[in-house]
Amino acid sequence: MIAERLQALRNYMASKNLDAFIIPSTDPHQSEYVADYWKLREYFSGFTGSAGTLIVTQNIAGLWTDSRYFLQFEDECKHTEVQLCKQSIPHAPEHVAWLCDLLNENAVIGVDYRQFSKSQIDYILSHTTQKQIQLQNEPHFAKDIWIDRPELPNFAIDVHPLEFSGETTASKLAKVQAAIEKHQADYYLFSALDEIAWLFNIRSRDVDYTPLVTAYALVGKEQSFLFCNTQRFSESSIAAFKQLNITITEYDAIATLLPGLSRQQKIITDAASLNYACFEAVEGQFMFQNSLVKELKAIKNAVEIEGAKNCMRKDGVALTKFFIWLEQELEKRTISEYEIGRKLDSFRQQQEYYTGESFAAIVGYKGNGAIIHYTAPEVNSSMVHKEGILLIDSGAQYKDGTTDITRTIWLGGIPSTKIKTAYTGVLKGYIELEQLQFPQGTTGAQIDAFARVHLWKNGLNFPHGTGHGIGSFGMVHEPAQGFAIGPTTVRGTTPHLANQLTTIEPGCYVPHQFGIRTENIVLSKVVNETDFGTFLGFEALTLCYIDTQLLAVEMLTASEIGWINQYHKLVVEKLSPFLNTEENKWLQQKCKAI
Amino acid sequence: MIAERLQALRNYMASKNLDAFIIPSTDPHQSEYVADYWKLREYFSGFTGSAGTLIVTQNIAGLWTDSRYFLQFEDECKHTEVQLCKQSIPHAPEHVAWLCDLLNENAVIGVDYRQFSKSQIDYILSHTTQKQIQLQNEPHFAKDIWIDRPELPNFAIDVHPLEFSGETTASKLAKVQAAIEKHQADYYLFSALDEIAWLFNIRSRDVDYTPLVTAYALVGKEQSFLFCNTQRFSESSIAAFKQLNITITEYDAIATLLPGLSRQQKIITDAASLNYACFEAVEGQFMFQNSLVKELKAIKNAVEIEGAKNCMRKDGVALTKFFIWLEQELEKRTISEYEIGRKLDSFRQQQEYYTGESFAAIVGYKGNGAIIHYTAPEVNSSMVHKEGILLIDSGAQYKDGTTDITRTIWLGGIPSTKIKTAYTGVLKGYIELEQLQFPQGTTGAQIDAFARVHLWKNGLNFPHGTGHGIGSFGMVHEPAQGFAIGPTTVRGTTPHLANQLTTIEPGCYVPHQFGIRTENIVLSKVVNETDFGTFLGFEALTLCYIDTQLLAVEMLTASEIGWINQYHKLVVEKLSPFLNTEENKWLQQKCKAI
Question: Which of A131, A437, A456 should we substitute to test contact with B (largest number of B Cβ atoms within 10 Å)?
């Protein structure tokens, strides 16, 4: 099947004199999760991972992805000609230099400009110039190949009410309009879907796991445009938007409106999210800046923080009930990883404002836990027994917030020293970073290593970043702050500020043996102000017991033991009002002081 | 005087229709310390700091430098029109965007291309293009202004013998030639003076503090050229170079030889050190790469490491004798900071292979210690009494190595809690980073913060990087590895590898009150090899007591106390054979276990 699709693509390439084709994993909005319509890379390669780029020439089909996906790739693409090309840094466009080396002078590369940001095309052009390699825009390349391609989503759009958003669209728009004034520009153009959802307080379910709306937005000093199919809105919300001088216009109208702007008009936009087709369509002048909305949105307001805390409590209740079920059920039978994932979701569904999972839950038993972005298949996933180690990374979308939590638990038998050393090193790293006090403005790359130091001491490490921002009923991986190993990544170079929500999630993976990860969401807060500046610290919001059976207690300092006992006290205190007597008894046992 | 010079420059600018002039602090080799001939920025501004860029327009004279130099600037430039422009990141070209904002479209900026690297001009051009601002090469702008400009240095050149270098020029050249073959190039062009000194095993005294030779080098597959005035070499060394197919050619001949290369020839060079005048002179094709010699030189061989250890022992002996002298002399009289610096140097002069200081010693009493790059003036420097705090940062060039050490000592009275907290936080940070085990290839920005974390906990910090590489009878600040706060700096992004020498030097500064810094040189070594990779650790090579009077012992963990006692045991053990009985008694007292 993949062979036929690649052959059809190669025939197309030959007919168009294209020497190579680059198919990334994204959509016109640089989304992480995309609507089925945009799953071109999956269609042509079979690889379903959320990060990866396919490059096709007449001789080669290479899939570039990073170490988180190597095992998944081998599994999904083993019967195809697609080769794994190993990226050393996640999301780094390492394939560009490789492709330029491979191609002859004056070669032509096909791309769909909509799938690439302005920054990405600039990066490619900086590599292609020397050999005079050309890019050719091919927006219709899949038209006659992917016959049964799904439609673009067209679900009803909900207004995200003030009780969850904490700020009106009018107030948010005013901030954008002030920036337009300040920079003496005429418009601010937004194309990142999470920014548009935040700015207009709208939500829908266009893509899996993320309650976003496929749209563009052009904010003017007085008049604004939201490009999104009109029939998706209720009449009352169209009227409400009209009150704010916001016109709802069809999604495709962006292609005709942009070229209509006069040459004199200045448009602020973010080159990291604007797609190159939009860039090329505009006659006016762009002023490229980091998106103001991205920055505003990363700082949570009091309502969003309250919502996040509620969600953590709901997640904690669901997880407690789930873990009780799992323990009891494993006494009676073995259970598939897939069933475990579905059952966990069923407990979350009982919680208020639940709308769905925030990503595909990872339920990895023993060696499967070492596959960092593992998804248990619906059929023939591993059977979990009453022994060994189980990693569960899951999250939910609630109308008042988004969650993401990982726990690794021991199901029975005697854990090896190797497992306990790794598990304890991971938890010590989590505590080290969570307890850090650091100057406001410190970047992720500067402090990421605090979560690694106890692993390093034992010759261990993990091949992914230590954490990411998280949205408020938005994207589970929200830009821009985080903790990343690469000092050149966005998460590595973005300053941490107060009132941001970020995950801390160190891990340790031994292929075919086990995977360990412990993840909480933390809130950044001002903890000190001195002549040397403002200092921040973190408060853990996630509420779920941490399995103490796997701890090598002799590796812990008194202060680390204090942290664990204090955290468990908080978990019991916050969750117990929502649990019955038996559940409370179980939780207290799991949370008893060590 | 500065006013007259600036006026003359402005007259020149007017005659040439220049709207601005950029005068950096460097020479055609991107040197940190430059020969007097190249001290143009000092000549036109009066500012003598080692980092800073002067920008002159008809209305403004602005000196861009970072926080290490703010107090020094205020002192040196207070009677001039020169304004301080504060850089937030050391060495970052923040003035470029500022200048482009200031100037009108089509403005012309004068520069001497020799003073800018290819990378720097590219950076400037990336900012000037939008407003069509032009750069104009002005190599002779100072000719009729700076009448008594010093000559370029012309001292005799010494061969650096195998007993100190540990590797022959033939062996080093072979590695460069292998790289030329590998990249199918014809030449490797070097212009960084420390790289040339290392590659050809030559030393001289062209600039203060650094035993380098003003030269360019062009290495070919068989024939190589060293551009450096012929009369500086002995006949025997010219003959020895001839045996290696190395031709000594006059320094200025670079300007005629480069244009003579054919268009077909490929030259590998480092855009970060190649000056733009050389870049423009070449007809052939450049291949820009990080300099191979910079990478090779940063890994010390066994002879260089042995030399470094000898130098640390010699420095330790000199410092011990000096501190004894200081303590005894302060019983009798007060002593100026300047005299203290000279006296310290006199103790080092008694050590074998001493050739000079490796930088201008910093002797900062009380508030002067807070001026990070303070130099005590020869006349009217502060008088040091038998009380309070004194910071001394100094180093030497020995033929077998280069040293750099900082100690902060207490001279009498009762230290405040504030001082003790800061001092203890600094030492805890030093220990934290020195004791770290980390994967080979970890960059400086990833682990710099380990030296800060104990200061951060107390609301303290320091506004400079935590350490730098150091040469072997070479530059005291040697690229490229180090520990830097900025994730985009060279020291922040360079991987640490085994057998490198690097300083660890956290500090804490309270203006007008005190400065604290503790600095050792450490050697990186492989400490573990596992399935997760190769792990490095550091070994402290510097040997000098650390003043325990300033420690808040209650802030120290048992393991930190263990480190201090173990280090002091080592200091006594290594230095005692070179001290007399009385000196030994004194040192044992300073090093007694806490």
Answer: A456
Amino acid B129: pLDDT: 84
Q: Pairing between strand B438-439 and B20-23?
A: unpaired
B461, A437: Cβ pair inside 8 Å? Answer: no
Point out the residue among B459, B492, B532 whose CB comes nearest to the CB of A487: B492
* Per-window interface: B 527-586 vs A, CB < 8 A: 528-533, 535
Q: What is the residue whose two structure tokens read 């990080």? A: B290
Q: Do A443 and B488 touch (CB under 8 A)?
A: no
Read off the pLDDT of residues A263-281 as tens digits, 9 standing for 90 and up.
889 999 999 999 999 999 8
CB contact under 8 A, B459 and A493: no
Q: Is the separation of the CB atoms in B450 and A453 below 8 Å?
A: yes
Q: Which of A91-95, A243-247, A456-460, B421-425 has the lowest mean pLDDT?
A: A91-95
What's the rounded Cα separation, in Å, for the pair A62 and A80? Answer: 11
pLDDT of residue B568: 98
Orientation of helix A94-102 relative to helix A118-128, angle to 10° = 30
Please report the pLDDT score of residue B260 as a whole number. 82
Give, to the nearest 10 degrees, the angle between helix A558-575 and helix A581-590. 170
Using the predicted structure, report yes or no on whether residue A556 has a pLDDT greater than 80: yes
Nearest to B564 by CA among B541, B548, B588: B548
- Nearest-by-CA chain B residue for A445: B446
CA distances for B390 relative to A97, B71, B366, B367, angstroms: 53, 18, 6, 9
Residue B440's closest chain A neighbor by CA? A456
Helix or strand (DSSP H, E) at B357: strand B354-357
Distance CA A112, CA A118 (A): 12
Contact at CB, A446 and B487, closer than 8 angstroms? yes
Is A260 part of the contact surface with chain B (CB cutoff 8 Å)?
no
Which residue type occupies A295?
E
Residue A433 C-alpha, separation from nearest chain B C-alpha, in angstroms: 11
Query: What average pLDDT score do residues A153-181 get?
Result: 97
8 A C-beta contact, residue B472 and residue B528:
no
Helix residue spans in A106-250 (DSSP H): 118-128, 162-165, 169-182, 193-200, 235-243
- Report CB contact under 8 Å: A456, B436: yes
A488 has a pLDDT exceeding 80: no
CB A353 within 8 A of CB A399: yes
Residue numbers of chain B with a pLDDT score lower than 70: none
* Global confidence as pTM: 0.93
Distance CA B591, CA B585 (A): 10
CA atoms of B306 and B313, how far apart (whole Å): 11
- The secondary element (H helix, E strand) that includes residue A569 is helix A558-575
